[in-house]
UniProtKB/TrEMBL annotation:
First and last residue of the signal peptide: none
Ranges annotated as spanning the membrane: none
Keywords, comma-separated and alphabetical: ATP-binding, Cell cycle, Cell division, Cell shape, Cytoplasm, Nucleotide-binding
Taxonomic source organism: Veillonella montpellierensis DNF00314
Domain of life from the UniProt record: Bacteria
Family matches, as InterPro entries: ATPase_NBD (IPR043129), MreB (IPR004753), MreB_MamK-like (IPR056546)
Protein name, entry field: Cell shape-determining protein MreB
GO BP: cell division; cell morphogenesis; regulation of cell shape
Length: 377
């Protein structure tokens, strides 16, 4: 009888942690506290670099590489503001949306034009490449144009804070581009970087201590497209869209009047009759269309050279001017700048990715960089 009673008591007092783990929480927590914190700290320290461009958003994750390259478009309902598509899906809807739907770029000329939509887009992109929660929050380096104001900087910082960032560091695009082309390995030398993006053109002279003098122009690849649209409508009486202008710029676009002539058929709407029409466009017409914007960029380069210390001008004359950004892919731009300015100009390999490569290098020093929001306080 005593043996059966002891066996029954043993069964009644047996641990049932697998069924109700809260009953043994103190013991289990003490046992696994260190390993749990180690796991959380490892997972929670995502270091992310973002090139927040007008035309495209590029995301680099330390340890993974370039994980996202998407157009910065958002399709939404005009009345309810409900987001219908983001990135490539939204871009494909451009010019083909039904009534009541619009496709926008929430970032214009390198700064945030639509705060809430930008936050949604960034949160959407970030969650597609890294895990974000109340515990897991990434540290982010963001590229901004060199001419942004403190108010515009604060808007960028607050958007990323609301999107889930634990720490946000702002880095100017020409400095990131210089890092991306390997300037950080050069000692005691100066260089001029011209970064032509979708909405802005940043011109800067950099040295080993940072940016010496810079200027940000509110023009870029988008302005090239608009100039082509206006020229075709004015000279050829044909109305074309942004996608057609972009195709012309990429396929036959040039800024050098001495370049080999190419042709391309473009379709649009006749401005007089309103009927569909196709015409042949030549590269010389594209050159005349964008000539004004290109000369504005060259005049900006001259202004920066006038403000540059003589010692650095000598370094620039020796090493040349470096072109980065997607807008720099226009044929003949390097040759034209070389002829007019008198300094050898070079187009880097994969110029679209120069800024994000520099951001990736900045992530290596993330622990030593100060949160930009603290600097604005």
């Amino acid at each position: 009888m005593d043996d059966r009673r002891k066996a029954r008591r043993a069964r009644q007092t047996q641990m049932i942690a697998k069924i109700t783990p809260q009953m043994t929480m103190k013991k289990e927590t003490k046992k696994y506290r260190k390993s749990l914190f180690d796991i959380v700290s490892r997972v929670a320290t995502y270091d992310v670099g973002i090139d927040l461009g007008t035309a495209n958003v590029l995301i680099y994750v330390k340890g993974k590489g370039l994980v996202l390259d998407e157009p910065g478009y958002v399709a939404r309902d005009i009345h309810t503001k409900e987001v219908l598509a983001v990135g490539k899906e939204a871009q494909h809807m451009l010019g083909r949306t039904p009534q009541g739907v619009e496709v926008i770029r929430p970032v214009q000329a390198g700064v945030i034009a639509d705060y809430d939509t930008t936050e949604f887009m960034l949160r959407y992109f970030l969650k597609s490449v890294v895990s974000i929660s109340a515990i897991i929050r990434p540290r982010i380096v963001v590229c901004v144009p060199s001419g942004v104001t403190p108010v515009e900087k604060r808007a960028v910082l607050e958007v990323f804070l609301r999107a889930g960032a634990k720490k946000t560091v702002l880095i100017e695009e020409p400095l990131a581009a210089a890092l991306g082309i390997g300037f950080d390995t050069v000692k005691e030398a100066g260089a001029m970087v011209v970064d032509i993006g979708g909405g802005t053109t940043d011109i800067a002279v950099v040295c080993t201590t940072g940016i010496v003098v810079s200027e940000s122009l509110r023009l870029g690849g988008d302005m090239f497209n608009e100039s082509i649209i206006r020229y075709i409508r004015r000279k050829r009486k044909l109305i074309i869209g942004t996608c057609a202008a972009e195709a012309l710029k990429i396929s036959i676009g040039t800024v050098d009047r001495h370049a080999k002539s190419n042709e391309m058929i473009v379709r649009g709407r006749d401005s007089a009759s309103g009927l569909p029409k196709a015409i042949m466009v030549t590269s010389s017409e594209i050159q005349r269309a964008v000539e004004g914007q290109v000369m504005t960029i060259i005049e900006g380069i001259k202004r920066i050279l006038e403000k540059t210390p003589p010692e650095l001008v000598a370094d620039i004359a020796d090493h040349g001017i470096v072109l980065t950004g997607g807008g720099a892919l226009m044929d003949g731009l390097d040759r034209l700048i070389t002829r007019i300015v008198g300094i050898a100009t070079y187009l880097m390999d994969s110029p679209r990715y120069a800024v994000i490569k520099g951001t990736a290098k900045a992530l290596e020093e993330m622990s030593d960089l100060r949160d930009s929001l603290d600097e604005l306080q």
